[in-house]
Amino acid sequence: MNKVAIVYWSGTGNTEKMAACIAEGVKEAGGEAMLLAPDEFSATAMKDYGAIAFGCSSQGSEQLEESEFEPMFAALEGSLASKRIALFGSYGWGDGQWMRDWCARCESANANLFEETGLILNDLPDDAGQETCRELGRGLAKW
Ligand SMILES: Cc1cc2nc3c(=O)[nH]c(=O)nc-3n(C[C@H](O)[C@H](O)[C@H](O)COP(=O)(O)O)c2cc1C
Q1: Which of 58, 62, 93, 101 is the pocket-test mutation for ligand 1 (most atoms within 8 Å of CB)?
Q2: How does pLDDT run across 3-22, given as a tens digit for each residue?
């Protein structure tokens, strides 16, 4: 199934830009992309997609955004076993610890991670970063 859900939270539009480019890549590869907010997704929706890309910028102190994204993700974390997922997000001054922690949570849940490290980009993605996001989308559509 080449239907890809892209479920993301973005405070200032940086991760949103990544999500839009991932969606472009999915479509370039002939897939169907659904861009969704955290409150539009849940564990029961996962079966409708061949792959799911979760996106959230680094918030708090190297944390997922806690009022909308974290509750959504925590609620479906126990249902991630063998699901094909990718993680992405923008960060600022840190070193990507939030993404390392997030990937570790997915590995503990026995999810099937597209990229072990997730895709992180600093601030608003530049042209090269946008192309990296499209490449991820193309990969997810063909997975
Ligand atoms: C409240 C708050 C907390 C943040 N905490 C971190 C952090 O711990 N590490 C980091 O690298 N960037 C941090 N940032 C920076 C954002 O991750 C960065 O600006 C990112 O590009 C925002 O992406 P977004 O527009 O998709 O939310 C924080 C930003 C805000 C507003």
Answers
A1: 58
A2: 999 999 999 999 999 999 99
The residue type of 67 is: S
Find out whether the beta carbon of 130 lies less than 6 Å from any atom of ligand 1.
Answer: no
pLDDT confidence of residue 78: 97
- The answer, yes or no, to whether any atom of ligand 1 lies below 6 A from the CB of 67, is no
Structural domain boundaries enclosing 86: 3-142
- pLDDT of 1 reads 63
Find the mean pLDDT for residues 43-70: 97
**Please, are residues 130 and 16 in contact by the beta-carbon 8 Å criterion?**
no
Number of domains in the chain: 1
E strand map for 1-143: 3-9, 32-36, 51-56, 84-91, 112-113, 119-122
CATH of the domain at 71: 3.40.50.360
36 C-alpha to ligand 1 centroid (Å): 20
- State whether the beta carbon of 101 lies less than 6 angstroms from ligand 1: no
